[in-house]
Amino acid sequence: MGATSNEGTGPGSVEKIYPKIINDVVKPDNLRAISTFFQNLTQEIVISTADGTASVDDAYSITIQAGAGYPAAANGVAADGGSINLYAGAANGNGEGGDVNISAGNTGDGPDANAGDVNINGGDADVADNSDAGDVNINGGDASNGTGDSDGGSVSIRGGDAGDDGQAGWVNITAGDSGTGDGSEDSPEAGSVQISAGNSLSTDSVDGGDVTINAGNGSVNGLGGDITMLTGNSSGTQRAGDINLTTGTNSGSGREGHIYLNSMSRMPVYANATTRDAGAGTPTNGMFCYNTATGNIEVYVGGAWKSVDVTAIV
Do 289 and 271 contact (CB within 8 A), yes or no? Predict the structure, then answer.
């Protein structure tokens, strides 16, 4: 091949060489055979872009993108988009299965530099009727069905620790808002958040899984963290959301579960009967509160509010 140059349009120019490389070296037939070729590799695969240079500070990105379905496919034709599958290798003998690690880049040493984020998003729905958005599923692996102590895989979601005067990372779990539809075709619904412990399926005496929510401890004169449970606000004539604490029932000869308040608790406090009635809505037997105006505990019994004169209790 003759001399090459970075400029011009002659036979040895970049403008002429690039198409030749694409057409003669990286042929479509060769690309189709790459999958088979990769199956027989005997060494690790490293895909890496070059670091930034003095002239171009930023490093280049790596993009792995599956193809879209044929855009001109007619209605009713399943033109599926391609999938991206990441599988670690299975173990044999006493070996351990391979890991899948997805890590964003660390921050630089400059002021106000930010580390990279990891974003996992389900696909957005299209404008087509009844088009659902994609889910994001994170599952721990199932244990072996064989005998022995084979543990199921755990799922851990944890915010990062703070450094010096920084704020520790948050863990936010938020369900989606409802659509703006008017219910003429189907009732739009807001998403729910569900936290469920596992059931016991054993033929032995095995307890059901617990759900534990712990706030953080304070240090020195700092307060301990609070646990706040807020129901949704209502509009119009509908009530706001309730908080339901219900223990499990027993199908045998034992009792149902109890609700224990192991620390000092406070009943609802209302300034007067007007605010009490507004808070109660339609009162039911068993409701109780403290009425600031009367200075008494009040209990709804037999269809009416009854005042308990606590000043007479010694």
Answer: no
**Which residues are bridge partners to 83 per DSSP?**
none
Alpha-carbon distance of 30 to 34, in angstroms, equals 6
Helix locations, the chain, DSSP H: 14-20, 28-32, 34-39, 273-280
10-38 pLDDT, tens per residue?
A: 555 545 555 555 555 555 565 555 566 66
Fold of 261-314: YefM-like fold (3.40.1620)
CB-side neighbour CA atoms (13 Å) of 167: 3
Three-state SS at 297: strand
pLDDT at position 3 is 45
Instruction: Report pLDDT digits (tens) over 204-255.
Output: 889 999 999 999 999 999 999 999 999 999 888 888 999 999 999 888 888 9
In this structure, is the dihedral angle defined by the CA atoms of residues 295, 300, 305 and 306, taken in order, positive or negative?
negative
Beta-strand ranges (E) seen in 14-89 are none
Whether residue 67 contacts residue 83, with contact meaning beta carbons closer than 8 Å, is answered with no
